[in-house]
């Protein structure tokens, strides 16, 4: 069975392992399913219209419930937390949640993925609460291309202001750019040129078949190789070592020393063998894979009053049973037509 695992993290003593020997290290928490954008590859506006049934507030996990779960996960070896959504900055008082998560022993890294629009108002408070890093999504530097993608006609300026505010607040910033053929592949070079030398890592993400509504087709995927070749031709690159075990992005440095880029190649070079992530949806379902069809209802158990000990036992048992390796299977062409959760619901 362990032949499948490329390398097992030798680190933590607390580490619990799944069926394939992968340790649990990262918890991704979606705090809301709503979003102020309608990105065509994530929440296409034709489907996520005005009458879309988003979760009512009573169904969202409270900050107390999230913190309780995070504490339990930390006791099982989780060290990193990423807050996501929907658009996580639409959740009221998010800084208070971050402050609570920051107090948990064992959690040494809290990050956030956002579309950046609300950062000018919120970056400082988030940083003060203990946030270390933000990944800001920006799929184009050209206004017309960006307007068409985000489905709300928003130009790039408010996102660029969000990036500036995050940097000013002392947060480390990375940019996420999903690349889809015909949507924004003409932005690969302009984005690289724009962010080169700005102390910001731009990460290109291969368009993924998440959810059931984004019209994914392998023909629309621009591969890591195509991205790197294109940039390398104009701005020569060399590969760099991974920063830590299980890093999802392959790193490349500009040879002239002017920074680096990353590529997340979940489609053409999948990395399930080192996947140490569990995901918590805004309504309290746990998913051991981004491409899972169903989640484990931990909210029900929390609200039914399970003890700390039972909680830890149930979380550990969920991880022990984990056999997910969807992207590797995709590569092997054996998982076609499976119904999956939406990206806007689980948060990437
Ligand atoms: N709203 C926030 C944002 O856009 O950063 C957080 C949630 S969003 C679902 C998290 C990340 O998933 C974003 O960087 C987004 O670009 C990425 N994403 C969404 N759908 C995707 C897809 N089909 N393929 C690849 N990445 C996707
Ligand atoms: Fe919203 Fe982020 Fe999805 Fe875009 S990618 S629709 S900003 S959740
Ligand atoms: Fe992890 Fe699932 Fe993605 Fe593989 S497909 S890397 S198991 S989330």
From TrEMBL:
Residues that coordinate or bind [4Fe-4S] cluster 1: 35, 39, 42
Binding, S-adenosyl-L-methionine: 41, 86, 137, 208
Domain (Radical SAM core) ranges: 19-238
Reaction equation(s) it catalyzes: GTP + AH2 + S-adenosyl-L-methionine = (8S)-3',8-cyclo-7,8-dihydroguanosine 5'-triphosphate + 5'-deoxyadenosine + L-methionine + A + H(+)
Cofactor note: Binds 2 [4Fe-4S] clusters. Binds 1 [4Fe-4S] cluster coordinated with 3 cysteines and an exchangeable S-adenosyl-L-methionine and 1 [4Fe-4S] cluster coordinated with 3 cysteines and the GTP-derived substrate.
EC number: 4.1.99.22
Name used for this protein in its record: GTP 3',8-cyclase
